[in-house]
Amino acid sequence: MTDTITTPWPRLRVADWTETRDTVHMWTQIVGKVRMAYAPPVNHWWHVTLYPTARGLTTSAVPYGDGIFDAEFDFVEHRLRIRTSDGRARDVALEPKPVATFYAETMDALSALGLEPQIHAAPNEVESAIPFAEDQTHCSYDGEAVQLFWRQLLQAQRVLGRFRAEFVGKASPVHFFWGAMDLAYTRFSGCLAPAHPGGAPNCPPWVMQEGYSHELASFGFWPGGGDEGAFYAYAYPEPAGYAERTAAYYDPDLRECVLPYEIVAGSDDPDATLLTFLRSTYTAAADLAGWDRPAVDLPR
Could you tell me the CA-to-CA distances from 17 to 21, 50, 102, 135, 142 in Å, in that order? Predict the structure, then answer.
């Protein structure tokens, strides 16, 4: 760790918390899959995501039976809090423990509340898809590091929310996808896209095809791609000339634009640095693909 949680743009080297990151990634997959088991389907998998809160990450309200429940990672007090609309609740401690233990404790807590979700109990979008009940490998939890990452998410959410307000076309929420462990926001032109080829590890092509069914420009933040994580932007399908027009940011290996978090956090005006990245990459995607920008962009 390189900073305290009071810094507006917290500094956290990925190398300093990789084992914790990978463990928490698996934990968010478990809770996200529980939401997916109960939430009505929404286009592009928007019904499976988590959302940053003043305490951590939440499923938001999820229907079950005649009521609702939610599950929130409280990264302040380091608890997973599961609550139902009839006033009952159960907690699971967030502490160093194997994924297998966290999975068993979470399923037991849900069962005590009358919830018996049927989930695919192995991770997606990772190379090593160890079934949750068997995963003794991922067992780290550095609470300070997790708090720093959560506060990075809050800053990313705040600026992405400001950027989102500049667009009146179809757009996603700013939400946390547990598959790739990224905070994402996506704009759509309204046009259909060619079928996505797939390719994400341990993820069927049809999953990606639903997510990328329409032409889009997507933006977000994830704990990789830079010493302290990175912001990203890409277009699907990528229009001709996109790489050249975004050359200041474009990574030909990733086939997307990347802005390391440390460049944003270390700049004189982090908000302006990030907004410049978001606006310029969106403009390149929308202009080159021929979006009807007067119909979807609010004047600034």
Answer: 6, 21, 19, 19, 7
pLDDT digits (tens, 9 = 90+) for 3-54: 445 678 999 999 999 999 999 999 999 999 999 999 999 999 999 999 999 9
Peptide bond into 96 cis (omega under 30): no
Q: Residues 83, 74: contact at Cβ < 8 Å?
A: no
Residue 3 and residue 230: Cα distance in Å, rounded? 18
Instruction: Give the span between the Cα atoms of 28 and 57, in whole angstroms.
Output: 9
Return all residues near 246 (Cβ < 8 A) that are at least 6 apart.
233, 257, 280, 281, 284
The pTM (predicted TM-score) of the whole model is 0.96
- The answer to whether the beta carbons of residues 19 and 3 sit under 8 Å apart is no
Let me know: does 115 contact 102? Beta carbons within 8 Å: no
What is the token pair recorded at 253?
A: 């290996």
